[in-house]
């Protein structure tokens, strides 16, 4: 699932080398943290959060296929 999010986000942003995806938790509940360049935050979140919600929907489907639950947190860059 981490690889899926990484692939999708890297194809959206201008600075793919700054994309960091961290998978936390194990078992049936997984939390994925996404960090991108400050310039790319708008591209990842999208107008009204539509892009971020679409990425979350993809993640939920991928997790469900494996019998797990997953959440995505977009982390504010420093």
Characterize the structure shown.
This protein has 78 residues and is α+β, with helices and mostly antiparallel strands. The protein has a single domain, classed as K homology (KH) domain (GMP Synthetase, Chain A, domain 3, 2-Layer Sandwich), CATH 3.30.300. It has helices spanning 2-12, 41-45, 50-65, and strands spanning 20-24, 29-35, 69-75. A three-stranded mixed sheet has the order 1-2-3, with helices on one face. A hairpin with a 4-residue loop joins β1 (20-24) and β2 (29-35). It starts with a helix and ends with a strand.
- Count up the domains: 1
Q: What's the main sheet like?
A: 3 strands, mixed
Overall pLDDT:
93
CATH architecture: 2-Layer Sandwich
Q: Any descriptors?
A:
3 strands, 3-stranded mixed sheet, 78 residues, 3 helices, single chain, GMP Synthetase, Chain A, domain 3, alpha+beta, 41% helix
What is the compact description of this entry?
The chain has helices spanning 2-12, 41-45, 50-65; strands at residues 20-24, 29-35, 69-75. With 78 residues, the protein is α+β, with helices and mostly antiparallel strands. It has a single domain (2-75), classed as GMP Synthetase, Chain A, domain 3 (2-Layer Sandwich).
